[in-house]
Amino acid sequence: MSSPDSQNDSNNQLLRVVPHLDSHNALIFPVMEYTLTNSHVLKIGRTITDRRPSSNSMTFRSKVVSRRHAEIFVQHDKVYIRDMQSSSGTFLNNRRLSSANQISQPFEIHDNDIIQLGVDYQGGAQEIYRCVKMKMELNKSQQQNESLSQYNLKTYQSLKQLTTPPDRRECLLKDLDDMEMAIETDDFQVGECCICLFAIAPFQALFVAPCSHTFHYKCLRPLLANHPGFLCPLCRSYADLDKNVSLEVEDVKQMLRSNKKPYTH
Question: Ranges for the FHA domain (predicted)?
Answer without folding.
Answer: 42-97
